[in-house]
Amino acid sequence: MNRVIESDQISISRRILDAFRLDPVLMLLLFLLSAIGFLILFSAGGSNTELMFRQLTRLGVAVGLMVLVANISLRVLKKLSLVFYLVGVLLLVAVIGFGEVGKGAQRWLDLGFLRFQPSELMKLAMPMMIASYLSEKVLPVGWKDLLISSGLVIVPVLLIARQPDLGTALLVGSAGFFVLFLAGVRWKIFMVLGLIASLMAPLLWKFALHDYQRNRILTLLDPESDPLGTGYHIIQSKIAIGSGGTYGKGWLNGTQSQLDFLPERSTDFIFSVYGEEFGFFGAVLLVLLYLLIIYRGLYISACSGDNFGRLLAGALSLTFFVYLFVNTGMVTGLLPVVGVPLPLVSYGGTSMVTLMGGFGIIMAIRSSKRFLA
Amino acid sequence: MAYREQLKDNYQETRLIQRRLIVSAIIVLVLMSIVLGRMYVLQVVEHDHFSTLSNSNRVRLKALPPTRGLIYDRNGVVLADNLPAYRLEIVREQMDDLEQVLQELSSLVEISEQDVKKFRLASKRRRPFESVPLLFNLTDDEVALLAVNLHRFKGVEINARLTRNYPLGKHAVHALGYVARIDERDLNSLDEASYAGTSHIGKLGLEKYYENDLHGDVGYQRVEVNASGRTLRVLDEQPPLPGNNLYLTIDSALQQLAEDLFAEERGSVVAIDPSNGEVLALVSMPSFDPNLFVKGIKSKEYSELRDSSSRPLFNRALTGQYPPGSTTKPFFGLAGLEYSIMGHKQTVYCGGYYLLPNEERRYRDWKKEGHGKMNLNDAIAQSCDVYFYDLSYGMGIDRMSVFMKQFGFGEKTGIDSTGERPGLMPSREWKRGARGQPWFPGETLITGIGQGYMLVTPLQLANATAALALEGQRFKPHLVKTIEFPTEDMELEILPEINGVYNVKKALNWEHVIKAMENVVHGLRGTAHRIAQGITYRMAGKTGTAQVFGIAQDEEYEEDKISKKLRDHALFMGFAPLEDPKIAIAVIVENGGSGSSTAAPIARKMMDAYLLRHNAQQESNS
To answer: Least CB-CB distance to B43: which of A184, A245, A307?
Structure first.
């Protein structure tokens, strides 16, 4: 049964949304974000309309997927979790064998009719898998389940990290981690894990990271040490944001971006374009919009009727936050340069489709029968 | 049981997850606040700093090199101008591998090591994204060949830029000097800011001496550029100010005549207007084409010039130091009168040689059989050596030295050019200092006929002749008559400057000496009598023949050339017209034999041409 009380006052658009099992609040917020995103992309892309159309097409595909996923029942999603997860892991292994090398990393799998990044699938399959596994268990998570879940998280993360794709590994890993966190893994255990991680850090630094990854972290600490290489991105990004000032230079008037000083300005560094042209006020507004989306997701999670929905909606919302935090932290020079886009704003298709797929899941959770609110 | 347990757990679990969600929400808020705090620091607190950085990113100061001042002769003939010439320029930022590009370019056009060296040097002082010239004055063929291949080379450009040009080539090069690319030595002395964008600098002669006038003031453009350095628009501009133009004292026609008269001979002519020290002609032959140095001379071309036995690069007029020979006789004759050593009527018997007391060595006259009884007039007109041996013996080297220095011998004239040498006027003191030896009486005698240690430059000799013409008033010779300031529409006339005045004890002493010099040309027995044929004005002169020293030891030449190289230098000095001297000339023809046969005719023809034109000008003026 639909929880919404039928009434003559309910608007037509609301009825359409309900018919497609879509959350009106999330839809409004996502629409606003996309609109702002296109505004920035138009400026960052040098007023290139062709670029806009391509992005619009992707958004269309992504929204289509979202609607599709939103209409899958939660029970089916839960059943699909294991399948998705296993297929994802298999494909990740396949990438090692048959993957195509792009930009120095092995990430793509060419299926003949389409090129596909299995790690993107993992962004959804991971939280689904862990949530579905833990939702059957007694919470808070015991040692045995914790170990099994951790294993389920670590294997794909390592496979992605060795492609190497630090950004995606981070997102996939945190998606799994958030499920565990929400499932009530004790604080003590987090502390022990944190201790182990900090002890492992030097070893990871030495053996697990590629040279360029090490460089990025070193460059973060001192961008001037490599002003023409990796540091150039950070320096130019900080100049763009800083020179924007309180109110910004105005739309299409950012000299750093319009005159090509800012690299990767349509993709990973699009937030710098926004900061330069719309200033601190613009940045606060955009961050508020993101926070509303995240909090709406967390709210849906809290209101969900079963553990699978709760864990999954929460983890997906928090993963969305990781995108936002890592990207904005990176362009402001707080975090090292890892390839994480500004969600739903950066130019590029794969992350947009995955993200919208995630929101589709969240909406499916909202419209599931046992939703409480 | 199990079912009940789960129900109980369900409530607890929901509470647990919701607690964790709240914790998450707080962490999210805290972390995003940190990001926004960071934004606040960047955008509000440090805004000014980043604003400056942003502007220095996009706004670039572009140097606009000034146009170098032009050089004209006294009548407005262009001697040095600037023509657009194609240059191969390189923008370092726009290419990945400079070495590879250089290598590939050199397969198309010749690029010497020197070119690359100068390019690297110039690259050091360029601004980012400034193009630096590699090759200058490309030929049409080179331009065509490069132009079709240019698409292969990113950051390589062919640009037409105003470049120094000497339209008359070899003409007057030793007066003008030349410009060439700025080298390491120049960088130490020049002000880098005012030479931003400038590729050439005066290296020699006037071009160097008047560098500050000729160069002009650099201009600037503030331009907005994109990240690849392309200029998008000019924000504002301070235009460069062209250098000042020079009008020389040189008379290009007279200079040309002298150069033509020399033909294949080596030597030098300096002609001066005695009334103000203006240098009318400054000739050093053979000459060379200064345009080679502007383009960047190839090492093969350079070594050919440097190693040529006729030494075209050597500026004989200012730096050539020659024994003056008998051209000194009018001066020493005057000294004899002034020191009252020998009256103008007093005679010396010339028997072909002279003996010092207590010495057996014979000091020969050039005329073996002797001149017979000689007074001052005869001795100068016929260039009797014995007379001057005797006179010098009476005067002594120290008085000779003091006297000659009052005519500028042994010191630089201070001409407005570079490289001038002082010559040498020996004295007892000089010899002790320089050689650590005592002075021998015999050396006084040979100094008296302009041999021995004494050395003069053609410029010195001409200037001393001018001083004779003006009865002791000696100007500082100068090459620039007027400096034109194009930006201020103003001209600065260079005023004559007096280097020294010699006041005679008796005015008649001048007459005696000048009369004798007149007889050199116009007297029946004068040594230069043969140039008097058909002369329409009166002139005073003196021939000289200088023995060549040291050449056989210093240099090795092919046998057929040795005889020529060992021949005497031929000299002539003179001025005209006698009653109102307009021109004083010194001529030196290296290995020219006797002064009367090779040097004097050059002076005569130059005076003819100059005075004829001068008279014509005066007539048309009146």
So the answer is: A245
CA B549 to chain centre: 27
- For the cut 80, the answer to whether the pLDDT of residue A362 exceeds it is yes
Task: Determine the residue among A259, A260, A365 to mutate to test chain B binding: the one whose Cβ has the most chain B Cβ atoms within 10 Å.
Answer: A259
Chain A residues with CB under 8 Å of B228 CB are 260
Quick one: B361 exposed, middle or buried, by C-beta within 10 A (0-12, 13-18, 19+)?
Answer: exposed
- Chain A residues touching residue B31 (CB < 8 angstroms): 321, 325
Q: Say if residue B284 is in the same domain as residue B184.
A: no
Q: Give the 3-state secondary structure of B274-331.
A: CCCCEEEEEEEECCCCCHHHHHCCCHHHHHHHHHCCCCCCCCHHHHCCECCHHHHHHH
Measured between alpha carbons, how far is B598 from B592 in angstroms, rounded to an integer? 6
Contact assignment for A291 to B29 by CB distance below 8 Å: yes
Tell whether the model's pLDDT for residue B556 goes beyond 50.
Answer: no
In the three-class reduction of DSSP (H, G, I as helix; E, B as strand; rest coil), residue B21 is classed as helix
Look up the ipTM and state it: 0.92
User: Taking the domains of chain A in order of start, what are their residue ranges?
Assistant: 19-71+223-373, 81-209
pLDDT (tens digit per residue) in B39-81: 999 999 999 999 999 988 888 888 889 999 999 999 999 999 9
Tokens of B428: 């007892």
**Do B49 and A242 contact (CB within 8 A), yes or no?**
yes
Residue of A nearest to B232 (CA): A259
Residue B565 domain flag:
yes
Span A344-358, pLDDT tens digits: 999 986 889 999 999
Which candidate from B17, B20, B35 shows the least CB-CB separation from A287?
Answer: B35
Parent domain of B545: 252-621
The reported pTM is 0.71
B328 in any annotated domain: yes
